[in-house]
Amino acid sequence: MAKRIGILTSGGDCAGLNAVIRAVALRAHHAHGWTTVGIGRGTLGLLERPVDAEVLDPARLDAALARQGGTFLGSTNRGNPFAFAMPDGTAKDRSGEMLEGLATLRLDGLIGVGGDGSLAILRRLVAPAGLPFVGIPKTIDNDVDLTERAIGFSTAIAIATEALDRLQPTGASHDRIMVLEVMGRDAGHIAINAGIAGGADVVLIPEVPWRLHRVVEHVARLRAAGRTSALVVVAEAAGMSDEAPDPADDAPSHHGVGDWLARRLASATQAEARATVLGHVQRGAMPTAEDRILASALGVHAVDLLAQGKADRMVAWWNRQVTDVPLGEVVGRSRTVDPDGALVRTARALGICLGDAV
Ligand code: F6P
Fold first, then answer.
1. pLDDT value at position 254?
2. 286-323: per-residue pLDDT in tens?
3. Which residues of the chain register pLDDT less than 50?
4. Which residues does a 6 A CB cutoff place in the pocket of ligand 1?
5. Which ligand 1 atom is the nearest neighbour of the CA of 236?
6. How far is residue 110 from each of residues 18, 106, 122, 235, 275, measured CA to CA in Å?
7. Residues 135, 119 contacting (CB under 8 angstroms)
8. Residues known to be catalytic
9. Contact call for residues 200 and 177 (beta carbons, < 8 A)
10. How far is CA 253 from CA 3, 233, 243, 244, 353, in A?
11. How many CA atoms lie within 13 A of 109 on its CB side?
12. What phi-psi label fits residue 106: left (phi over 0), alpha (psi between -120 and 50 degrees) or beta?
């Protein structure tokens, strides 16, 4: 029997989403003779009448699509069906409306591409409908549990590394401390990976409690040894773990740590310091080859799971293999950087200061 499956991308976008949509639609069509329906703007498309959705024509999903950043379906990180933000500031449960919209599409299965938050929401949304659901992990933060890689992470590391490559020479030319604030939500994966790849002197992540005076000492040692510049990477959630920020600095508790740190380092070391907040640049780009490959492999496997009658699972990359895990074991959990893991040990071995006592 010919089947119809739906796909939507949910949460913050990242590189590799178009590649995964393409892989799903091509696999569904070529291997199973199925139709794929792309749902627009994540869960928001389900609120429109008619629902914002289109049948994806496999003939139009050429390789050029896999190279493009963003998601041609659109996405949202503001569409929580159970606590939908209304214009008057209240939160409303609109899951029933979304389910009604979903029913109009007459789907036999749904594939959701999202981070752990989006996958949890989608799983809960479709449960009453009994619609087979498979999740595909994507997030530049790489904090989805039970998968070594999420789509978009490789590209984000590449961009953050390139930023360090560009900051180093300008910092060296002007004898400055260059601070790069990277994304990652509550995890330091982007920071530690880019910091190692980009030759940072200091990497500050939320998983390793750090002290400002240790960073200052490290930079001072570099300067005493003849280095006039320094490269510092700070994860957006690294926080200001020691001294409470001076209220006069108006330092935010999350985003903005880079600016705060640059100001503090400048006053403590008498060196000039500049902060760069990389922000959404990390999300929007041509995906790396690794992200395209990952997206393709995970997309194909997600379709095959539905074909095997399997549901409530998340496809995953583990031990150099595509695999799948129960979605229930992923949602509500988050995978942060292991403070005793290989990357932290590598950073230390390279002489990178993590701002702690070790
Ligand atoms: O989860 C992806 C992410 O880019 C985080 O790294 C960041 O904290 C957040 O989304 C930014 O969200 P927004 O796009 O709403 O500014």
1. 57
2. 999 999 999 999 999 999 999 999 999 999 999 999 99
3. 244-252
4. 12, 77, 115, 139-141, 183-185, 236, 283
5. 8
6. 17, 11, 10, 34, 43
7. yes
8. 141
9. no
10. 49, 17, 13, 10, 22
11. 26
12. left
pLDDT tens-digit map of 234-259:
999 998 655 544 444 444 455 689 99
Tell me the CA–centroid distance for residue 52 and ligand 1, in Å: 24
Q: Which residue minimizes the CA distance to atom 12 of ligand 1?
A: 12
Closest ligand 1 atom, CA of 282? 4
- Residue positions counted in the chain: 358
Centroid of ligand 1 to alpha carbon of 258 (angstroms): 16
Q: What share of the chain is helix, strand, coil (3-state, %, to 5)?
A: 40, 20, 40
Q: How far apart are CA 221 and CA 226, in angstroms?
A: 9
The radius of gyration computed from the CA coordinates of the chain, to the nearest angstrom, equals 22
C-alpha 108 – ligand 1 centre gap (Å): 32
Quick one: pLDDT at residue 358? 74
pLDDT for res 240: 62
Ligand 1 midpoint to CA 319 (Å): 28
| 85-100 tens-digit pLDDT | 999 999 999 999 999 9
Phi, psi of 109 (to 5 degrees): -170, 160
Counting Cβ atoms within 10 Å, is residue 197 exposed (0-12), middle (13-18) or buried (19+)?
middle
Of 107, 128, 95, 100, the residue nearest 7 (C-alpha): 107
Pocket test for ligand 1, best of 77, 116, 236 (most atoms within 8 A of CB): 77
Residues 6+ apart with CB under 8 A from 125: 43, 81, 95, 98, 99
